[in-house]
Known about the structure:
alpha+beta, two-stranded antiparallel sheet, Hypothetical upf0131 protein ytfp, globular, about 30% helix
Amino acid sequence: MDEFWVFGYGSLMWNPGFAFEERLTARAFGFRRSLCVWSHVHRGTPDRPGLVLGLDRGGSCRGVAFRVSEENREDVLDYLRRRELVTNVYLEKILPVSLGDGRQVKAVGYIVDRNHVQYAGALEIEQAAEIVRVSSGQSGPNDTYVFNTLAHLKDMGIRDHWLEEVGATVATFTQAAV
Length: 178
């Protein structure tokens, strides 16, 4: 049977929540990291939704791939489905991925469903920053999620210029309010 790989592009990169045999930087093709999912629970509420990351179509995305042992495949899939498919805003897909060591593999990944009510679409930097600045949910403030994501991306040597601009704009809003 083929090796089982999982692709992470957001919090899954530093908080996978499952056992793995190997962890490598990776690039998924055909999709890009995007702050394009309305969060009604973890980083916002139904009245004031926040924004979280999704893989949206177009471009490519640097992230992390995890190789999972065959014996853990079903348990990891069950865990990921409970974690990622709660509101069905994500679709489980097999993605072509290039690993940091040059290997080409197929990995399970979760892409945003553009037809779902929680799909926010492409937002302007200022619009996204204002939403992030004022939203909070069960897992805490939305700006903490964005700043934490940016810190981890930086630690991993991954640049996301658009997300960095959103974070910088949120920080500017916060400094202006002080």
